[in-house]
Specification:
There is one protein chain. The chain is built from eleven helices and 17 strands. With 392 residues, it is an alpha+beta fold. It has one domain: RlpA-like domain (Barwin-like endoglucanases, Beta Barrel). A hairpin with a 2-residue loop joins strand 7 and strand 8. It is globular, with a radius of gyration of 33 Å. The relative contact order is 0.18.
């Protein structure tokens, strides 16, 4: 019996040993998985110095045709460091030949190709002009739409002293009680409430033509008494420019190939009940000043008269205002090459970006026909003065 008892005890122990769970394997510490951030692409510089041989089309233009425009720029540039001697030398070229003027630019400037932040070199070039509008100095049934001067209550706030990084920006607003609030939008200004009553400069016949005057920034008012008056940009309400052409595209009112200033006019004539809503899609609003005397061409942002076919509006954050710019593009609504030396003499509310320009076509209906159809791919080369180090 004892022998049997002990055999039973040994069996239970053995069964217990067999039933015990196996030892877990030793823990192996794994390196934590860290999500890798995508590599940050380095932003390419806006201006990259190149040789004159790399300026596409430089030999195909006659730079002497741009000399007069450059001499106008010099009225503002001559006070800037590095420009005085160049502007003095330009005076002696009044009767210079094409080759002499070309040599002048090559001797005094280094071309810099303009690049996008990703390194690409193509941008957008549109056109602008000085339109003619029928108008009057007083309101009537024939002239019911006001063109306003700069409002007395418009505030311009400069943040550069407090925030130097914002030195290129100006805020517009108005006082409402104890607060500064955004200025009126287009839809507010053109309502029957007339918040700017008393600030009218002229009255015109057509709201669409008035809208395009806002876009162009300058225009001639053909008064009912036979007088012609030039008006020029004085200020803006601070709201961003939004394209009514894009709105029409989004609504399916026309295709991209059909888009032009002329076709927008035609659409407005066919849809008079929708014009107000269309124009109000752009909250930006421009105010004007009357220029005294017989002004043949309005001044741009540089403060000098614009030259048809040779003045260019740019984004001054990337292209120095006043600098010569060689432009490679095509004629409006065409593949025919257009390569010429122009002068950065103006800016515009819709002209934003490194390679973004507005080609000044001049005054009147023919200029408007070219400007309204221009939406071309373009490349820019900015000409910057050689320094003493460059000349050694």
């Amino acid at each position: 019996m004892k022998k049997l008892y002990w055999m039973m005890i040994v069996g239970v122990v053995l069964l217990s040993a067999c039933a015990r769970a196996p030892e877990p394997p030793p823990l192996v510490e794994k390196e934590p998985v860290v999500a890798k951030e995508p590599p940050v692409e380095e932003e390419k510089p806006t201006l990259q110095a190149v040789s004159w041989q790399e300026v596409s089309g430089w030999q195909e233009d006659n730079p002497s045709l741009a000399l007069s425009a450059f001499q106008k720029s010099c009225k503002a540039l001559r006070w800037r460091q590095g420009w005085q001697s160049i502007c003095e030398a330009a005076v002696s070229l009044e009767t210079g030949t094409e080759s002499e003027v070309r040599a002048f630019f090559e001797r005094n400037f280094i071309p810099h190709q303009v690049s996008q932040s990703d390194g690409s070199t193509e941008g957008l070039l549109t056109g602008y002009y000085v339109p003619d509008l029928k108008g009057s100095r007083s309101a009537s049934a024939d002239y019911p739409y006001p063109l306003y001067s700069r409002p007395d209550d418009l505030l311009t706030i400069d943040l550069s002293e407090v925030y130097p990084a914002l030195s290129n920006y100006r805020l517009r607003g108005r006082v409402d009680g104890h607060r500064v609030v955004p200025y009126w939008e287009r839809g507010d200004i053109d309502t029957q409430a007339q918040p700017l009553a008393g600030q009218e400069l002229f009255w015109v016949a057509d709201p669409v033509e008035l809208f395009f005057l806002h876009v162009q920034g300058s225009g001639r008012i053909l008064l009912d008494n036979g007088e012609r008056v030039m008006v020029n940009y004085a200020d803006q309400n601070g709201h961003p420019y939004r394209s009514i052409g894009k709105y029409l595209l989004d609504q399916g009112a026309m295709t991209r190939d059909q888009m032009s200033m002329q076709n927008i006019r035609a659409w407005a004539r066919k849809n008079p009940g929708e014009v107000e809503n269309l124009l109000n899609q752009n909250p930006s609003y421009v105010f004007f000043r009357e220029l005294e005397g017989d002004v043949q061409s309005p001044p741009g942002a540089l403060g000098v008269p614009l030259t048809p076919g040779r003045s260019l509006a740019v984004d001054r954050r990337y292209v120095p205002l006043g600098a010569p710019v060689f432009v490679e593009t095509t004629w409006p609504n065409s593949n025919q090459p257009l390569k010429r030396l122009m002068m950065a003499q103006d800016t515009g509310g819709a002209i934003k970006g490194r390679i973004r320009g507005d080609f000044f076509w001049g005054m009147g209906e023919q200029a408007g026909s070219q400007a309204g159809r221009m939406k071309q791919s373009t490349r820019f080369w900015v000409l910057l003065p050689r320094t003493e180090k460059d000349l050694k």
